[in-house]
Amino acid sequence: MSAPTRLPEAAAPPPAPAASRRRREPPLRWLRRNWWVYLFLLPTFLGYGAYTVYPLAASWWYAFLDWPGFAVRGEFVGLDNFTELLADDLFWNAFGNSLLFLVVAVPLRVGGALLLALLLNSRLTPLRGLFRTLIFLPVVTTGAVIGVVFTLILDAGGPVNAALVRLALLDSPVNFAANADTSLGAVIGVWVWKWLGITMIYWLAALQTIPPELGEAARVDRAGPWQEFRHVTLPLLVPFLVIITLIDMVGALNVFDLANTLTGGGPAYSSEVIEIFIYRTAFEATVPQLGYASAAAVLFGLLTIGLALGQALGVRAIRRRSLT
Amino acid sequence: MSTVQDAGRLSISAGPVSGGPGRRSRRARLLVGIGLGLFCLVWVYPFLWVLSASFKEQGEIFGNGLSLLPETLVWDNYVRAWEQVGFSTYFANSVLITVATVALIVVRSALAGYVLGRCSFPGKKLVIGIFLVTFFLPEGYTIIPITQLTDSLGLLNTHAGVVLGLGAGGHVAATLLYAGYFRSLPGELEESARVDGAGPITIFFRVMLPLAWPVTATVIILQFLTAWNAYLLPLVFTLSQPELRTLAVGMTSFVGEYSTDYTGLAAAAVISLLPVMLVFISMQRHFVDSIAGAVKQ
C-alpha cells in the first residue's frame, strides 16, 4: 500500500536504463520506444476512469440536480437537495443507524476476533487448523443469502428462539428480525458473526509478527500470561489495532446485502442504514429521486473519506512514534 | 508438540512452568479444546440447520426445536428451487458473471501492476495517488452514476453490463499486489527474453505473467469471492430482467414471490452457498494465506 520505493527499480537493469536514459532522451523518442507502457495501462485507464473516478465526480454533480428517475436529465437546483436532506428525519434516522452500527458492531468484531486469535495462536490449543476453518467459514458465504437464511433462523419458530426459551433466557419467542426493538441488533449480530473470521485472520497475521523470544524473555522474568499479554503483546499490537479497526469500519458501511435481505431496513425504518436509504430513494421508490439519493451518497462518501483520513493519520502517527 | 515455552504461552492455568508438559497443562489443553469445540459447533449451527431444513417437510421446519435430523429426506425441495423457481438459470448466470469478472480483473490488474511495478513513466505518481484516494470508496456511493453510465452504454440488463460494473473499476488491491510482486523479480528475466528478440507484449504474457502465478492465484481467490457474493450491483442492473439474476439476487426474489415455501428457500440457500463453501474448504490453506498476505502488504 505504501508508495513504491525507487531502489529495486534502479537494481533491475532492463527497465531501469530506459528510465534513467529518459532524462537525456527527448520525450517523443522515449514514447516511441515505450508506448507499450501506456498500452498496458489502457484497460485500467478506461475501466477505472469510467467505473470509479467518473462516478466519484458524477455523484457530486447529481447531488445538485432535481432528477426524477423517469426524466432523461436532471435540472440544476443548487443546494436544495442538501437542505431538504438535512431536514429529513428518515435521513437522520438512517445516518444514526449507520453510526450506531459502527459504534457497536466494530468493537464487537475487532475485540471478539482478537480473543479468538489469541486462543488460536497458542500452541496449547488443540485442533487449531480445524477451529480456524470453522470460524472463518461464514466469511466466504454470500451476504444476501445469509440474510434470507437468518430470517428463518431468527424467526419466532426458529432454532434461536427454541434455544433461548429452553435455556429460560426468554419467556416467549420473539421474531428478532421483524421486531422494531431488535431488528438493528439482529443485523449487527449476524454481521459480526459473518465477518469475525476475517478479522481473526488479520489478528493471527499480526500476532505472527511478534518474535517468540519476547515472550520467552518475559517468562524468564517470571511474568504471568496476563502480564505478558499486557506488557509485551498488547503494545506491539497497537499499530495493527488502528489498521484493523479502520478496515472493519469501512466494512461496517458496506452492509447493504445483509441488511436489505434480513430486515429490508424495517420494520418501520428501525434498521434502515444509509445504503438502504440511498437504494430506496434511487431505485425502489415509485418516483425515484436520483439527485436526492446522490446528495445522501455524497454525505455518506464524506463520512468514509473521514474514516480513511483518520486511518492515514493514525498510521502515520504510529510510524513516526515507532521510528523515534 | 508442546514444549516448555509452548505450554506457558497464554495458557489459562499456566503460572510459572517448570519441568515440561505436566498433567496440568494437558488438562488445560483439553478444556480449551472442548470449549472451542462447543463454540464452533454453535458457530456453524446455522449452516447445519439450513442444510437439514432443505430436506424437511413444509410443516416440519419450524416448531421442531433444535433437532437437525429430518424425518424423511424430501428431495422435492431441491427440484422446486432448481426448476420451478429458476435457480438453474441463476446458477448459470452466477458462474458466467463470476468467471468473466475474475478474468477481466486478473488481466487488467496484471498489466497495470507490471507497468507500475517495473517501469517509471510520466504520470505514475498521479495514477498511484488516484488509486489510494479511491481505495475505500463504498459501493453505495458509486451505484447511481454507474447505473446511469451503464444505461447510456446500452448495457443495463445485460450480462456484459454486470461484468463491467463488477470488474472494470475498483479492485486497487489486486493491482498493488501485482505491482509489489513484479517489482521484486530480477531484471535479467526481461533482458534475456529481449536478446531473443521478444517484444514487451510477448515478454509479459510468456515470461512475466506465468511467473506471477502465486499472485494470480491470490487474486483469483479473492475476486471469486467478491464476484460470487456481489449483490447490490447485480440487483440494480437486473431489476427488470429476472432471467439475468444471479444466485444472490435470486434469493431475494424467492422471498418476494414464494414467501411461504420455507423448505424450498432452504434448498435454494444450500444451492447458493455450497459451491463457494466447497471451493473454500478444498483450498482453505491458500485462502487464509492470501488474506493474511494481502493484509501484511
The ordered H/E elements of chain B are HHHHHHHHHHHHHHH
Specify the structural class of chain A.
mainly alpha
Silhouette of chain B = globular
Helical percentage of chain B: over 70%
| SSE order of chain A | HHHEEHHHHHHHHHHH
Overall pLDDT metric of chain A:
83
Oligomer state of the chains in this structure: heterodimer
Report strand % of chain A: under 5%
List the helices and strands and how they pair.
The complex is a heterodimer of chains A (324) and B (297).
Chain A: H1 7-11, H2 15-21, H3 27-62, E1 65-66, E2 75-76, H4 80-86, H5 89-121, H6 128-136, H7 143-153, H8 159-166, H9 183-208, H10 212-220, H11 225-252, H12 256-262, H13 274-284, H14 290-323
Antiparallel strand pairs in A: 1-2
Helix pairs in contact in A: 4-14, 5-9, 5-11, 5-13, 7-12, 9-11, 10-11, 11-14, 13-14
Chain B: H1 4-8, H2 23-53, H3 76-84, H4 87-118, H5 124-133, H6 139-152, H7 159-167, H8 172-184, H9 188-195, H10 200-211, H11 213-229, H12 232-237, H13 247-257, H14 262-282, H15 284-296
Helix pairs in contact in B: 3-14, 4-7, 4-8, 4-11, 4-13, 9-10, 11-15, 13-14
How does this model look, in words?
The complex is a heterodimer of chains A (324) and B (297). By secondary structure, chain A is an all-alpha fold. Chain A has 14 helices and two strands, in the order αααββααααααααααα. In chain A, a hairpin with an 8-residue loop joins strand 1 and strand 2. In chain A, helix 9 crosses helix 11 and helix 11 runs antiparallel to helix 14. Chain A is flat and about 70 Å long. In chain B, helix 4 packs across helix 8 and helix 9 crosses helix 10. Chain B is globular, with a radius of gyration of 25 Å. Chain B has 297 residues and is mostly helical. Chain B has 15 helices and no strands. Helix content of chain B is 71%, strand content 0%. The longest helix of chain B has 32 residues.
